[in-house]
Amino acid sequence: xxxxxxxxxxxxxxxxxxxxxxxxxxxxxxxxxxxxxxxxxxxxxxxxxxxxxxxxxxxxxxxxxxxxxxxxxxxxxxxxxxxxxxxxxxxxxxxxxxxxxxxxxxxxxxxxxxxxxxxxxxxxxxxxxxxxxxxxxxxxxxxxxxxxxxxxxxxxxxxxxxxxxxxxxxxxxxxxxxxxxxxxxxxxxxxxxxxxxxxxxxxxxxxxxxxxxxxxxxxxxxxxxxxxxxxxxxxxxxxxxxxxxxxxxxxxxxxxxxxxxxxxxxxxxxxxxxxxxxxxxxxxxxxxxxxxxxxxxxxxxxxxxxxxxxxxxxxxxxxxxxxxxxxxxxxxxxxxxxxxxxxxxxxxxxxxxxxxxxxxxx
Length: 362
Fold this sequence. Notes:
- This protein is an alpha/beta fold.
- Helices cover 28% and strands 23% of the residues.
């Protein structure tokens, strides 16, 4: 693959894996509408690239993004699927949502007031706070909210909430009951949103059907908090060997001279670093695959370069592929493995990959 690409580092996206993951969750959604959550640059996988894969399957699949900026990026690329902005939308950008057929989230009275002042209003979903204490109208706000919607003759297209910890069944059930109560309150007041959604990746598996739509997030990309084996990781992140050199026992390496070679060694310099999203926390503990074998990161990960020990691998040369995340040969470095090493979660590992890195669908 590298010989055909004029880049030093790139991401390969497995379209078959992406669609297999989608189908896995869709088959458990019991006929409900599906939203593919592609916010935050599709969890680091490439906003437009992933959107095209999903749109190619069906133009009816909803796409969930973080901001109006992401939504407009999709519209510029002629993505026609329905889009919901899950994050906060600035009042002065609501008009753009209307002009581009993008639905927005209304989660507070300030945003509702801004919406009311518009002559031409965008479609919107109301977000309900059910126990996570982020965006959303709390239960005490519902009577006022319903009254405002009635007086303004506004009908939301959707109502939704978010599970704080889908693996915590007891707390999730409490949130779901609160959500159902909100739906009933709206219904009894004559407000009947077409869409109701609270279930995300893990929730789809752990709970019976709730609402009329489900949102597939991290699971779409092959990851899940419970590390379900049925899913297929979509991303492989690769780079290349830029230089090979010999070092002597006792020599030091990298910024801060943090590591000393205990033997005569051979190292490879990789043209990637923390600017690309390869975490500095992997200094001296990270591993990379070259020729299907694991090699250790030596010294500190620099802004644009990382050095690995290739002493035990024969015939490594400039231009050879190195896998930072994904499979090479019979070995595999997962996002979860990297997350465990640096004390974070896989979400952070993959979303922090620099969006400028070239992506190719395989």
